């Protein structure tokens, strides 16, 4: 035994994103998707977490710089399959095909929103309105909930 003090892992782990500050938020197939900004470089990113679970878990992050790898038209299918499999397991879907497909669909459905994100708001801006829109597919197969925050400088 050594006499060195115990240092918890949390002393070395720093948050990468703040889900309280987001440009948009969606709920698709049991996954909550946030459009937010990286705390390390302030660049836009997409964050996936399981619906209804606490936010203390490790999120799945798609940085803006990697968005093209997920696109149907220009994507790298090996990358998509590998990352979707890892994300599905981390989100609690396991390694089955339905979980992988749910992750791929969720990411690809939100790529346009990620690409259209504005730069991170300045610290002197504050929220003036929240908007929630719900779109249900006519056959009832899916529901997309879109939340936007309108901010203004004071």
Task: Describe the protein in words.
The protein has 154 residues and is of the alpha+beta class. It has helices at 67-70, 77-90, 97-115, and strands spanning 24-28, 31-37, 44-50, 60-63, 125-136, 143-153. The chain has 3 helices and 6 strands. The protein has a 6-stranded antiparallel sheet, with helices on one face. The longest helix has 19 residues, at 97-115. The protein is globular and about 65 Å long. The chain starts with 23 loop residues before the first strand and ends with a strand.
Order of helices and strands: EEEEHHHEE
Please give the alpha-carbon distance between the first and last residues: 57 Å
Shape: globular
Tally of DSSP helical segments:
3
Structural class: alpha+beta
The major sheet is characterized as:
6 strands, antiparallel
Please tell me the overall pLDDT: 82
Order of strands across the main sheet: 4-3-2-1-6-5
Radius of gyration: 17 Å
Strand tally, please? 6
* Helix percent band: 10-25%
Poorly predicted ranges: none
In brief:
With 154 residues, the chain is α+β, with helices and mostly antiparallel strands. Helices cover 24% and strands 30% of the residues. It has a domain at 19-124.
Task: Write the SSE topology.
Blueprint: E1 24-28, E2 31-37, E3 44-50, E4 60-63, H1 67-70, H2 77-90, H3 97-115, E5 125-136, E6 143-153
Antiparallel strand pairs: 1-2, 1-6, 2-3, 3-4, 5-6
């Amino acid at each position: 035994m050594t006499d060195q003090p115990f240092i918890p892992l949390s002393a070395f782990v720093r948050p990468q994103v703040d889900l309280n500050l987001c440009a948009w938020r969606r709920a698709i197939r049991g996954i909550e998707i946030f459009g937010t900004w990286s705390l390390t470089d302030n660049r836009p990113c997409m964050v996936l977490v399981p619906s209804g679970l606490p936010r203390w878990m490790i999120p799945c992050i798609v940085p803006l710089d990697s968005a093209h790898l997920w696109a149907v038209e220009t994507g790298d299918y090996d990358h998509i399959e590998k990352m979707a499999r890892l994300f599905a397991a981390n989100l609690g879907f396991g390694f089955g095909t339905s979980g992988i497909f749910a992750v791929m669909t969720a990411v690809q459905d939100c790529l346009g929103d990620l690409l259209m994100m504005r730069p991170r708001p300045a610290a002197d801006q504050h929220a003036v309105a929240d908007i929630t829109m719900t779109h249900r597919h006519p056959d009832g197969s899916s529901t997309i909930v879109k939340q936007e925050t309108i901010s203004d400088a004071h």
